[in-house]
Write a structure and sequence with these properties.
This protein is of the alpha+beta class and 767 residues long. It has four domains: 43-248, 2-Layer Sandwich (Beta-Lactamase); 431-514, 2-Layer Sandwich (Beta-Lactamase), CATH 3.30.450.20; 516-609, Helix Hairpins (Orthogonal Bundle); 613-767, Heat Shock Protein 90 (2-Layer Sandwich), CATH 3.30.565. Helix content is 47%, strand content 24%. It contains 17 helices and 27 strands. Strands 1, 2, 3, 4, 5 and 6 form a six-stranded antiparallel beta sheet that branches. A hairpin with a 5-residue loop joins β19 (490-500) and β20 (506-514). α1 runs antiparallel to α2. It is elongated.
Length: 767
Amino acid sequence: MAKSLYRHEEQALSRWLLTITPFAAALFALAFALFLIQTAHKEDQAITSTLEQDLLWQKQALKNRLDNLNTQLSGLAEVIATEGFNSAEFTGRSLSLLQDSPEVMSLEYVDETGQERWRYPQYRPDFLPEQKHRNLVAARSAVLASNESHFSTLVLGKQSVPLLAQVVPVRLPYNGRHTLLAMINLNTLLQQQVPWWIAQRYQVTLNQNGQQIASKFDRNLDATQLSRGIGFDLPPNQFELRATVYQQKQSWQQHLLTLTVAALSILMLGSTWALRRHIKERQKVEGQLRQETAMREAMENSLVTGIRAMDKDGHLIYINRAFCEMVGYSAETLIGKSQIMPYWPPEDLDRCMAVYRAILSGRAEPSGYQMRFMRANGERFDVRLYAAKLIDGEGQHTGWISSIYDITELQRERDALQASHERFVTVLNGLDAAVSVSDSASCEMLLTNRQFDRAFNIPDWHGRYCALPYVARRKGAPIDTEWFDSYRGHWYQVKSRSSVWVDGSEVWLEIATDITALKNAQERERQQNEQLQQTTRLISMGEMASSLAHELNQPLAAIASYATGCRNVLSQAEPNISQLDQAIEKMAAQAKRAGKIISGIREFVQRRAPHRKPCEIADLVDTVRTLLAAEVAKQQVKLTISDVSTLPVIYADAVMLEQVMFNLMKNAIEAMHNTPQAERALDLLITPSDDILSVVIADRGPGIPPEQMEQLFKPFYTTKNTGMGMGLNICRSIIEHHQGRLWVEANPGGGSRFIFTLPLPQESYEP
């Protein structure tokens, strides 16, 4: 009876187990289906959320890039305003900007008239618009009006290239209205600024008014209907940044997971009955193993070092949590992998495969390997990998174990330090100046650049050595002076200052620029100016020849007349001695007058070095008036000269100043050739003021157009048919040699006024 009851209970239990197992399998399949549906829904929500976040991120990245470009352009504008666009600072920074910004097609410096003062590249690509394009003109006008940077409206170049001009003002010290303009290719901007991980997910486009103007997409991927757009305004432009999701192919891991779960559902019915037999036996063993495993996992998961184990065939059999966090893959994804690992970057496959094979062959380097891995999101990072044999509890070699250290930050710091050092050495060696740093106490040379070694013939194999300073050193303000190398015959511009070295010691930084060519050019220019001055005097002498003949004829004719009168007096029976003495005195006065005219001309054309001495203004004016008397009478010009009898003595070269006054007054007379005779007036006004003397020569000629006023003083520029174009240039050089200024302006009453100033001496001079 008991056995029958026991058998009945056993049969009931068996039926219950047979019934519950299919029911559990069905519930499992239903739960799995619901899980897949929910997962798909969550994936869609996640994709939409990620799309919006990525779109916002991409918009901010583009904004940051354009803001950074605007900052760099503003920096270049400041360099132009302070140092000019021909300076080395501007050249270096502009080339660096163009090299680091592929989206910038050209960089142009434009003045207020719309003329290009500088551009790079020098030859304009065909698809770039001219500066007269209305969109560019409008953008420059907006910048000049607001004195702030602006974008132009969209410009479609040839082949429909979408272009956008970013314009910044150049704030020149003399209030110049110039601009710096960068042409940006929007297609290139997207190609450069849309990272690969976004380009793999979405088709990114930039639209305006519903029309696509720029894009970045993969032709091998198909776009879905899921897309999002966000406003991307670059006033006055209103763009839309849109991203469309690509169709995602299910990975083989997902298919494998689906098949595995389905197979498990089928096998569950067959395996359920066998599992129960081993449950109790395994519970005891598993309890012990669980404790040991928990301890080992706690220890391994506490490490920050990644641990990876492979069998002899190279299949991954174990990875710890630190390694999973390091590469961004779960342990389930990586376990069982061999050969090409998912965390190997495509560009370093050969390197990774070589290390992989070296470990499997037992030829691992004891010092380890430096490698580059790839995270699941595509980010690259550097690691240091050490490998050793994996020995089991029985002492058998079962595989290989590796420890991996993330050295990305350490490597980045090393690379940054190395790159900084290389840039510093490159810049230092690229300078034309000789740069040196020497110890302040011992004069030992600590650092020199290539130009220093070349300039002073320092061999490449030199050891420690000392060098004498160029000039005497002193504390305080930096030293800026010139130094002559008598051994090599070179001139140097030397800048020296005290500084602190990397170890805290005091050093001297000295920069020597070779100015020998400049010195030679200055000497040649001085000699040429002297020759041109002599030539000008000779030309002026030739022009005065006819007038001087008339001027000398007057005293000579008077002498002849007085001589005839003396003869008539002497022929009388009783000569009048008083009349004879008076005639002889007048003859002597006329002879002195003729001699003074000839002496003034000889000094005027005599070639000699500048010789300054105290001189009276009245004497200078009297000499010039004598030289021009014939020309004034011939042209019937009314000459007015202010009172010069009370003017102070000046310290100058009298002949040179006479030449300046003569040339300016003679030019004024010639300018009134077509002026009505009654209106021909030449005014010479000389007035002292504080510590300067002002000389004004005003005529009533036709005047000088404003655009020619500054051109008049340039060498070889002339408005005369037979002029050389050097007279006014030499006059300005003479006045500047006397620390004065010479300029021209319109005469309020008509004609022109040439004005020059001379400094008055601070103390009196003995005549």
